[in-house]
Amino acid sequence: MAKKKEQKKDEKKQKAKASESGKVAVNEHGQLIERLNYALALEFAATIQYMNQQCVVKGHDRQDYAPFFAASSSEAHLHAQNLGNKIVALGGTPTIVPAPVRYTEKLGEMLQFDLEMEREALNAYINAWEAAEGNRPLRFWLENIIQEEQLHVDELAKLTADHA
Ligand SMILES: [Fe+2]
User: Fold this and answer.
1) pLDDT in tens, 67-80
2) How far does residue 80's CA lie from ligand 1's centre (Å)?
3) What is the CATH number of the domain that holds 46?
4) Nearest to 75 by CA among 6, 144, 5, 136
């Protein structure tokens, strides 16, 4: 009896430690949850990064880019919300720790940072898709998001392209 209590205590401690470090407990979907959580951390980071850029962008570019950054932040927020709900539905624990966010006041660098983040997110979703073998509804769900992420990457690649 005492042993069981002790074991439960240990489990609780481990869980607390895991959430502190941003890692999450692994269940039978282990790798899949881990990969979805990495995508979630990136969506959190994208939400913050775009929102910050919406605040920071200045000069003539502000008129064009502030709405773009605001819309991108909202989209990342929505993706994060959907992902968190999906992780819980699969029996996992959604992370609360964002991936690293980068700051700059130069528009060109902002777009470059965003492109790199979107590419990372696209890869994270593709990796999650690979781990979702045998779960066709989840794969279809991920494919829709992958399509949207790919559009973002394409758009940012055009925005950061050299005009020369
Ligand atoms: Fe996204």
Assistant:
1) 999 999 999 999 99
2) 7
3) 1.20.1260.10
4) 144
